[in-house]
Amino acid sequence: MTSYRSLFRTPEFTPFFLASSAQVAAQTMSGLALGTLVYRATDSPLLSALSMFGPSLAQVLGATTLLSAADRLPPRATLTGTALAFAAGTAALAAPPPLWGIFALILVLGLVASLGGGVRWGLLNEILREDGCVKDAHIKDGYILGRSVFNMANGVTQVVGFVPPRLRPRLGVPLLLLLAAPYVFFVLRPGPFLAAGLATLASAGFAASLLQQERLMAVTPPELSGHALGLHSSGMLTMQGVGAALAGATAQLTSPGTAMTVIALASIAVTVSLAPGLRPAPRAASAPRTA
C-alpha cells in the first residue's frame, strides 16, 4: 500500500474514517462548549481547562485498568458502545448538571475514551492488515499511511508528517521543537492575526506524532497492537490533560500569554532533554566482502 488511493479502496477504511472523524469533530465542539459554560459559571481558567481536557487527563486511569481488554473485545461492537456512551454523556452535560456532576461525567467519559482509543487503532491496524493488496512486509506502511489520514483530518498541516522515509527519522526532534517554539512569543501579547499565524506554524509540529507512531509500530508485535496503540493514544492525551491543567493554573496566577510562554519553554526543555534518545540510530557499517 503506497498511495492514499489504494488506502481508500480498502473496503472498511472509508466508513471507519468517516465515523471516527465525525466523533472527533463532535467531541471537539462539545469540549469547547463545555469549557465556555464552565468559564461563564466560575470565571476560572483552571476549571475551564480541566473541563475541556478532563477526559484526556482521566485516560491515565483507564489506560492502567481497561486497555488490556482492547485486543480481546469485539472491536466493532465496542466502538458502537463507546459512541453511544459519549452521546449519552454529552446529552447529560447539556442539561447542565451541577459543577461536581460535570466533572464526574468527565471522569467517566475519559475512562470510556481510553478503551475506545485502544480498540479504534487496533481495528485500524486489523483493517489494513486484512487488505489483500497489503503484503506482510508493508503492514507497518499501511497502518502509518492510514493513521496519517486521521492526523490530516485533525489538522491539514500534518500532511508534512508523511515528506519521504529517508527524511522522517531526522524530523522528529525539529517537529517537536516547532510544536512549542512559536508560543514563546505569546508573552509579548501578539495581535489576533499574528497569534493565528504563530499557532498555525506551531501546528505543523503535530506531524511528530506520526513519526513516533511509526517507531512504535516497528517494535510492536501485531497481536499486541491494540494494547500498545491504546497506551500511546491514552498516554499522549493524558499528558495533554496534564499540560492543560498546568497551563490553566499558571494562567490563573499570571495571564494567558505568560502561561502559554511558560508551558512552551517547558516543552522545549523536555524535548531537548529527550533528544538523544529520539534521534535515529546510526546504521551499522556493512561487513567487508570476502574473496
Secondary-structure element string: HHHHHHHHHHH
- Contiguous uncertain segments of 5+ residues: 131-139, 156-162, 283-291
* Major sheet characteristics: none
Our Rg estimate from Cα atoms comes to 20 Å
How large is the count of helical segments?
Answer: 11
Count of domain modules: 1
The percent range for helix content is over 70%
From the helix content, strand content and strand pairing, which structural class follows? mainly alpha
Portion in beta strands: under 5%
Give me the count of strands.
0
Terminal Cα span: 39 Å
Mean pLDDT: 77
Describe the global form.
globular
What do you see in this structure?
- Helices cover 73% and strands 0% of the residues.
- The chain is mainly α and 291 residues long.
- The chain has one domain (4-278).
- Helix 2 (13-42) crosses helix 3 (45-65) and helix 7 packs across helix 9.
- The chain is globular.
- The two termini are 39 Å apart.
- The model is unreliable at 131-139, 156-162 and 283-291 (pLDDT under 50).
What's the short version?
Helix content is 73%, strand content 0%.
Index terms:
291 residues, mainly alpha, 11 helices, 0% strand, disordered C terminus
SSE blueprint:
Elements (H helix, E strand, L loop, with lengths): L3 H5 L4 H30 L2 H21 L9 H19 L5 H32 L8 H16 L13 H13 L11 H12 L4 H11 L6 H29 L2 H23 L13
